[in-house]
Amino acid sequence: MDLSVARKNFPNIFAKGKIGKHETMNRVKWAACCVSNFCNRDGSYSEREYARDRVIADMECGIVTNQGAYPDKLGLGKAYWTQVSINDDKFIPGLRNVSDIFHNTGGIAIQQILHAGRYGGIDLGYCIQPSAVEQTLKHFRPPREMTVDQIYETIQDHADAAVRAQKANFDGVEAASFMGYIMSCFLSPYTNRRTDEWGGSVEKRGKFMVEIVKAIKKACGEDFLVSVRLNATELMEEYGGNTDDECIVLMEMAEAAGVDLISIVIGWHESRRGALGRDVPYDNWVPLAANAKKRIKKVPLSFGPRLADPRIAERAIGEGWIDFWEICRPGLSDPDILQKTAAGLVEEIKPCIGDLMCLSKLFANQPYICTLNPMLGHEMEPEYHITSAARKKKVIVVGGGIAGLECAVTASQRGHEVIVYEKKGKVGGQVLGAAREVKGGENLIELITYYENQLKKHNIKVYLNTEFTKKVCQDEWPDVVVVATGATIEKPAIPGADKPIVSMAFDVLEANPKVTGKKVVVIEGGKVGLITAEHFAAQGNPTWVITGDRRADTDVSTTFKWRHAAWVKEFGIKVLTEAKVAEINDDGVTVTNSKGETISLEADIIIIAGPRKSVQGLFTELEYLTDEVYLIGDSVLPRWMHTAVHEGYKVGVRI
Predict the structure, then answer these.
(1) Over the chain, what is the mean pLDDT?
(2) Three-class DSSP labels, 464-500
(3) Cβ pair 600, 572 in contact under 8 A
(4) Catalytic site residues?
(5) Residues in contact with 297: Cβ distance below 8 Å, sequence separation at least 6, in sequence order
(6) What is the helix, strand, coil percentage profile of the chain, to 5?
(7) What is the C-alpha separation between 654 and 236, in angstroms, rounded?
(8) Strand partners, 108
(9) Residues in contact with 237: Cβ distance below 8 Å, sequence separation at least 6, in sequence order
(10) Where are the alpha helices (H) located in 201-325, listed in sequence order?
(11) How many Å apart are CA 469 and CA 84, to the nearest integer?
(12) Residues 175, 113: contact at Cβ < 8 Å?
């Protein structure tokens, strides 16, 4: 990284910083990003995780936080099957390998201690917390109230873990107090209903945190760094959580206790409002950090929830709202984000679209993934790396959706001549329709813009409004054809489906109509049906969704199911499940419900939103017209954005 160029383009981000007695090479902190689930069941490190850590180190963040390790021997703090452990000296050599990796590129190395509390005990079948408050998310374990002895044991576990981190050459530790983990369980009146010295007033609820900070400082010395992650808002109002002002009071208590850094976070796992998805604007939470900074003067604040745009981060640091830009998911999406920022190439950053597959997979106890970064978790595997092709080939990609675009860009980076054929007038495929998502759709437009910039950068020829046929293939004579023709929605065999009142969801969403006061019926749910219904309902149109499935969100990812449920409620959408449309007429539909009853619904607009069907015809036609032919994305089977991107990449990297 050329610091002279970096400091000219983004002088605040790349200015030196200060934490404790340490000087940082820039104002960027790598967040722990919870855990990766790349490690071993016994809490030890894997080569897969070390490879990932080298990528993190190469980002060249001034402060680098290692993923959260549970500190207790019983495993009450363990939240994920392959979460790393710091509960025994036997883990010190593995931890030292990580600190060495982080130090090699100049970072201040911090080890996060993550006792999951309310979300822990994954191998035990129960969890502990200050009070036995029932779980709202039923996949977590039933709670048991902590005894006073357990409270002191847990404080000591944190201090012992910090000593091990110190022996592993880390410069400090970070206590995780957010998202419903153990420390936040003490801080919140929702989960702390104790009447002894550990509960009651905000000062008593904060005692557990204060004692942990003091215990670590006593065990490791005043110069050993201690960071605490604290909520600026819990988004737990309906449960009786802390107010935003109480959150700042707790920060003041941490400051007085002697912490060296406060990392500001947003929300709990149980929050009914999103904190990190694309429905949240990049700058949405910045005012909360700025408000905290008015009262926290002695220690620096790091902040990064949903803050994926370096231009906003630059201003936030420059205005004195925060001291460090904390990066997590934007660095998963594009590990070169800092290098591109330093070079002034912000338009080349692969954007974090807030798809939250990272969390969806993690909550299923799988290694986390990123929708847009197929390399994540595969850094040690040579076949995932882009290398120069042994032989330059002429590669034609048929279809300008994200599967095809990812494949085209990747193949071009290998040195191939790449041409994209798209029968419509714009690239983007189904994402153009998905971008009508009622909250956050603009992130998907940003993704399409990213790919358009990449096509230009790599001199990839694009033919728009041009259908690729057998004859075109014979004329072009390619070495490789990648069929990325996606999926379509065909009109169902319903009487009246050809009436003028009927439209197809993809066509409607791309057209982006502005309609008010019309009665709308959407036939079929899923992602397409819900996005369509929400688009119309948000404009004030009474809207129904009719589906034969038991739920309307059958193909929606875990972290977006509740979002769509909230939007359905917010916009007054009526959903009829396990129902079949028997007939479409000029002024509505006739529906048979699960009880066999006939219902008539009036409609001015009827939209067919499913089922999606793969477009595969070209694949078989090309068998004897080209040396290699591949099928990727929804043209294999209609699925999700992450499968489209990952398949496009994996084919592009092997051609």
Answers:
(1) 96
(2) CCCCCCHHHHHHHCCCEEEECCCEEECCCCCCCCCCC
(3) no
(4) 181
(5) none
(6) 35, 20, 45
(7) 47
(8) 63
(9) none
(10) 202-205, 207-220, 244-257, 286-293, 310-318
(11) 53
(12) yes
In the numeric block, which tokens belong to residue 560? Answer: 């977006």
How many residues are listed for the chain in this entry?
655
Q: Strand 127-129 vs strand 324-327: parallel, antiparallel, or unpaired? A: unpaired
Closest CA to 105 of 165, 37, 153, 53: 53
SS3 542: coil
E strand or H helix that includes residue 459: none
Structure-token match 């419509």, residue found:
424
Of the pLDDT bands very low, low, confident and very high (cuts 50, 70, 90), residue 139 is confident
What single letter denotes the amino acid at residue 15?
Answer: A
pLDDT confidence of residue 624: 92
Residues 6+ positions from 620 with CB-CB distance below 8 Å: none
Helix, strand or coil, per DSSP, at residue 65: strand
pLDDT for res 253: 98
Give the span between the Cα atoms of 57 and 75, in whole angstroms.
29
Determine the pLDDT at residue 541: 97
- Which pair of structure tokens corresponds to residue 449? 């813009």
Picking from 45, 124, 116, 47, the residue whose alpha carbon sits closest to that of residue 79 is 116
Model's pTM, two decimal places? 0.95
Task: Locate 149 and state its tokens.
Answer: 């002895």
Q: What is the pLDDT of residues 340-368, one digit of tens each?
A: 999 999 999 999 999 999 988 988 889 99
Compute how many other C-beta atoms are within 10 angstroms of the C-beta atom of residue 236. Answer: 24
- Integer angstrom CA distances of residue 37 from 45, 69, 207: 10, 11, 32
Model confidence pLDDT, tens digit, residues 17-68 = 999 999 999 999 999 988 899 999 999 999 999 999 999 999 999 999 999 9
Q: Give yes or no for a contact between 599 and 593, defined as CB atoms under 8 angstroms apart.
A: yes
Phi, psi of 589 (to 5 degrees): -135, 155
Q: Secondary structure of 583-651 in the HEC alphabet? A: EEECCEEEEECCCCCEEEEECCEEEECCCEEECCHHHHHCCCCCCEEEECHHHCCCCCHHHHHHHHHHH
| Amino acid present at 460 | I
Query: Both tokens of residue 170?
Result: 């880390």
Segment 150-195, tens digit of pLDDT? 999 999 999 999 999 999 999 999 999 878 899 999 999 999 999 9
Confidence (pLDDT) at 363: 84
DSSP readout, 489-533?
EPPPS-TTTTSTTEEEHHHHHHH-----S--EEEE--HHHHHHHH
pLDDT for the residue numbered 317: 98
- Of 157, 125, 130, 126, the closest CA to residue 143 belongs to 126
